[in-house]
Design goal:
This protein folds into three domains: 196 residues, 3-Layer(bba) Sandwich (FAD/NAD(P)-binding domain), CATH 3.50.50; 111 residues; 99 residues, Polyamine Oxidase, Chain A, domain 2. Helix content is 31%, strand content 20%. The chain contains 16 helices and 22 strands. The strands form six sheets. A seven-stranded mixed sheet has the order 9-8-17-18-19-16-20.
Length: 524
């Protein structure tokens, strides 16, 4: 039994049966991308004796969870990253990957609570709720001030019932044509609840609700709340990402023969001299070419698009068009400040926000990360990080940084008197976008070429997974596809239940839909 699975209804997905002859020599695979998806694929292959080379354009591993060294204005050494990430208990495949080098997951520490606050002053929190659906939802509605009884009578019950039958991929057929904003409007939940209990989470997909598929939001509710009894508690690394996660995992993989080419940019992939692929990559010594039996493309959306565009012999025309259509989410900004004074003692490690122009959350790193805690203890200050998940495409970075700080002061007024010892700002636009109507056209793990597979959180696997867990799941799935072809055993996957938990609730949801039609989610 998976040690991370506490939900008795979680499902094990067995790997495909080996259906090809075992090769006469050890296959060699190029994994393009050293993020979660690429590391999961490398692990799955190397544990079955396959030779693996991981190519990563940055100098370190981790992808969007990479960290790098920096020196602050006061001379302190620090590790910067692209910001806070929550490791939920239902991230079974990701946690299983991390257990390879950290069997007890000692590098993670729990955050038992994370409040949500609206600019109007409304607040919510998830501590003390039962973990089993639907009682967790009933309890939240009963205790939350965002669900006043006087407004609950106006809720559109048929629309709400659709959230209780989030089967994959069926929910994409039923709700995928709508935006998350539309779904929130037609449910007629109290307005504060729409912003506080729902929009906060929809923006964690790095897009405003009007640009996010309603089906994707329904799957998110299923994964984190309505379909899993793991609860909403999550863990965070007790040290910066490289020290806590990637350095140990890299050592584990090196012990199984995996080679790493960091700081390596892939120019193109072409047909090899023998069946397979020739990878042309650029490092400190110029352009080199290496031959591989197969390749795993585990790059982020912009990297995948550019690599395939530069490799005209890769895949079919139809598949290449699908890759070209992989969408990127709007830009996001992470601002981290090393301040000369502490925030108030009662501030939580993580606070979700709603109703502000761009501020999505505030985290206080010295509440949980050892490096930040040591700096704060030594200087008497604090380390605070601000996130803006979906900025306008056209924006002025300096203006956005100033605006984000001003919004944070409105949330934590004590910041007004703080002086920044130093600051770092990360502005990126490389996350995946999941727009309405886009599910059918997403890349899948397999491609028309059986020696070429794709992995990443943007890849479709027809399982209720998302974000980091989506990356880990597709990485292992990519490894399984290649292993099966070579007659080698794959790896079992785990997922939260693949559809709504209760037969009665699912029946009610089906009853709210007319046969053969999309769901009845009429607005008033």
């Amino acid at each position: 039994m998976n040690p991370d699975v506490n939900d008795p209804r979680a499902e094990r997905i067995d790997p495909p049966a080996p259906d090809g002859p075992r090769p006469g020599r050890v296959p060699r695979v190029a994994v393009v991308g050293g993020g979660i998806a690429g590391l999961a694929a490398a692990c799955g292959l190397a544990e079955r004796g396959v030779g693996v080379v991981v190519f990563e354009r940055e100098d370190g591993l981790g992808g969007r969870l990479r960290g790098w060294d920096t020196t602050l204005a006061d001379g302190s050494a620090a590790t910067m990253s692209r910001g806070f990430h929550a490791f939920f208990r239902q991230y079974y495949n990701l946690r299983g990957l991390l257990r390879r080098s950290d069997p007890g997951l000692d590098a993670l520490v729990p955050l038992a609570d994370y409040p949500l606050v609206h600019s109007s002053g409304a607040r919510d929190r998830f501590s003390g709720l039962p973990t089993t659906p639907p009682w967790n939802a009933f309890a939240l509605a009963a205790v939350s001030r965002s669900f006043p009884a006087s407004e609950l009578a106006g809720v559109n019950v048929p629309a709400v019932l659709q959230l209780l039958d989030a089967d994959v991929p069926g929910v994409h057929e039923r709700l995928g044509h709508r935006s998350a904003r539309e779904l929130l409007e037609v449910t007629r939940f109290p307005r504060t609840a729409r912003h506080l209990a729902f929009e906060v989470f929809s923006r964690s997909f790095f897009a405003a609700p009007e640009r996010l598929s309603a089906a994707e939001m329904a799957v998110m509710f299923h994964v984190y709340f309505l379909g899993s009894s793991e609860g909403l508690v999550f863990d965070v690394p007790r040290s910066p990402f490289p020290q806590a996660l990637w350095n140990p995992l890299e050592a584990y993989l090196r012990g199984r023969g995996v080679e790493f080419r960091t700081g390596a940019s892939i120019d193109r992939i072409a047909p090899g001299e023998r069946p397979g692929h020739a990878v042309f990559w650029r490092g400190s010594e110029g352009v080199r070419c290496e031959e591989f039996d197969a390749a795993v493309l585990a790059a982020d959306p912009p990297g995948l698009r550019s690599l395939v565009a530069a490799s005209p012999e890769l895949g079919t025309a139809e598949w290449r068009a699908r890759v070209a259509g992989v969408a990127s989410a709007p830009p996001f900004l992470v601002s981290r400040y090393w301040l000369d004074r502490p925030v108030r003692p009662h501030r939580q490690a993580f606070l979700g926000t709603a109703g502000y122009p761009t501020l999505d959350n505030v985290s206080v790193l010295d509440r949980y990360e050892d490096q930040a805690r040591e700096w704060a203890a030594r200087t008497g200050g604090s380390v605070v990080e601000l996130h803006a998940y979906a900025l306008p495409e056209e924006h002025d970075p300096a203006v956005e940084r100033a605006s984000l700080w001003k919004q944070a002061v409105a949330v934590y007024p004590e910041l007004a008197g703080a002086r920044a010892v130093d600051a770092r700002h990360e502005l990126r636009a490389d996350c995946a976008l999941f727009p309405p109507g886009g599910y059918r056209d997403r890349c899948t793990v397999t491609t028309p070429d059986p020696t070429l597979v794709v992995a990443g959180d943007h890849v479709r696997v027809d399982l209720p997974v998302a974000l980091m867990e989506g990356a880990a799941t597709t990485g292992l799935s990519a490894a399984n596809a290649l292993l099966s072809r070579w007659g080698l055993p794959g790896h079992a996957l785990w997922t939260v239940p693949r559809r709504g938990r209760g037969a009665l609730l699912r029946a009610l949801a089906r009853g709210a839909r007319q046969p053969g039609q999309r769901p009845v989610v009429r607005s008033r």
